[in-house]
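== Folding task for one protein ==

=== Format: two labelled lines per protein ===

==== Paired sequence and structure tokens ====
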Amino acid sequence: MATTVLIVDDSKLARIVAGKTLAALQPEWERIEAGNAQDALEILRERKIDVAMIDFNMPDKDGLELAAELRAIHPTMPIAVITANIQDEVIARAREVNATFVSKPLTEDGLRGFVSGAALRLRSGGA
């Protein structure tokens, strides 16, 4: 069964970078993109999503607000909040919703820990 990853970022370029970075680590994972939180929630209602990678800085609803909503719906889903905003408050809020903090610019090394942990959790049936 394929693993489906939802990449949420208001920047098309950032979604492309995240998709390419993810593909380098897990080429068999299917990638679906959303440009904002509302689109992401609609996709989640229509499809089974296994993993979410969410940008922090987005209009209307920030990535941590979206992560909290996803966490309420999917208590064990691996969620990464991706941002260049490396403030203690943002990192603490990510931990509060049990999301992994990943800093921008996104690199394979930066994403590897989250992806490895997500793959392990999915294989063990925890998601």
Q: What stands out?
A: The mean pLDDT is 94. The chain is about 45% helix and 20% strand. Strands lie at 4-8, 30-34, 51-55, 79-83, 100-103.
